[in-house]
Each structure stands twice: as C-alpha cells, then as structure tokens.
Amino acid sequence: MERIRIDFSPSSGTPEEWNDAYARLADYFRAHRIHSRVHRTYLILETLDRAAETHPRHPGVSPTEVAIHEARRMHRAWLRTIIGDLNVPEARLDANGRLAFLLCDGPNRYPDYFIGDREAPAELMESMRKPIEQSGPDLAFSSMVPRPIDLGPMAEKENEESGLFDRNPLLRYFTLLIFTGLVLWGLYVITK
Fold first, then answer.
1. Which residues of the chain have pLDDT under 70?
2. pTM for the complete prediction?
3. Is 158 helix (H, G, I), strand (E, B) or coil?
4. How far apart are CA 48 and CA 25, in angstroms?
5. Predicted local distance difference test score (pLDDT) of residue 14
6. Predicted confidence (pLDDT) per residue in 134-155, tens digit
7. CA-to-CA distance for 122 and 103, rounded, in angstroms?
8. What sign does the CA torsion over 55, 59, 63, 65 have?
9. Which residues lie closer than 8 Å to 103 by C-beta, 6 or more apart?
C-alpha cells in the first residue's frame, strides 16, 4: 500500500488560520451531506490548495474566507456542468443546485461525484435537472394601487345602529367608574 503524502505549505496566513479554514470547510461539506470522509477530505484538501494559491493576492482576507469562497466557486462550476444550460439565474444557482442534489438523493447515491473530477453519470444529471425543469416561472414585480378597505355591509350597518355608549364615550367611562366604585364599596362592606 502506498503512503499518502500531503504537501501543503501556503505562503501566507498562519497555521492556526489554515486549521480553522480546514474545520470550516469540513462543516461546509458536511452541510452538503457529504458523509464519505475520504471524498470530503479530498475536497477539503483540493479547496485548501486552491485557496493557498489565491490567498496571497488578498492579504487582508482571512484564509477561511478565501477557502469558503473557493469551495463555493468550485460548487458553482460543478453545478454549471450539470444544470448550466437550464438558464438558472446565477443568484439561484447554488440554492437550486443544492436542492436538486438533495432531491435526487445525491449524498447517498452519488457522493463521490459531488464536485468531483470525474464526469457525473447521466442518471445523476437527469435526476438533478428534472426538479429544476419542472419548477414554475420566475417571480416578477407587480404594482398594486392602494385603495380603501371595504369592510362590507355589516360594518356600515353597525355604524348606523351604534348604541348610546358608542356615541358618548364620556358616558361610558362615567358608568364604568360608578360600577367600579360600587364593586369596591361592596367588597369593603363584606370584608368589614
């Protein structure tokens, strides 16, 4: 059995920052339900390698941010090979692609093809494209003109037949005050 040797020596960032980037990438790929540790480790190392090349050009950004950006870029590139010709807007490519991968049970049936170097099988491509092709039209802005609220005929009838207390709020409060006074006086007399 051959020994695996990993050559990873980035020219920028500290080892602690790169260890944090490794942990965040592991969480990122776990969130995509990539349970194969071997494939997840391959993806993490490939992403870290690309991030190590990119990070010197962006010294003000942490290696974790660069690594997550690279992972998302790799994910989008992989999705474009599968669903790119379906005219999915760039803003929805990640969400639609992730949903399609989950709907076709990709994490369990095709885990080694997720952002892999190998070409995805036709069955995976077809099953990922199907929910996107069936989705409805894009949302469009519409204009709604404000208008008064119509409460119907019951609201008009209620306003016409309002009682004595509705027309005279002071009478209502005075009656409430007298009732409260009588209740308190009654409690005083009973407890005396």
1. 1-9, 84-85, 133-139, 154-166
2. 0.61
3. helix
4. 9
5. 81
6. 655 666 777 888 888 877 776 6
7. 16
8. negative
9. 127, 128, 131
Judge whether 67 and 47 are in contact, CB under 8 Å.
yes
Give 29's contacts (C-beta < 8 A, 6+ positions apart).
40, 43, 44, 71
Could you tell me which of 43, 116, 38, 51 has the C-alpha nearest to residue 78? 116
Spatial CB neighbours of 24, under 8 Å, sequence gap ≥ 6: 64, 67, 68
- Alpha carbons 76 and 90: distance in angstroms, whole number: 9
Annotate 144-182 with b (16+ C-beta within 10 A) or e (fewer): eeeeeeeeeeeeeeeeeeeeeeeeeeeeeeeeeeeeeee
**Residue 95 to residue 81: CA distance in whole angstroms:** 15
CA-only gyration radius of the chain, Å = 33
Query: Domain boundaries in the chain?
Result: 15-134, 162-191
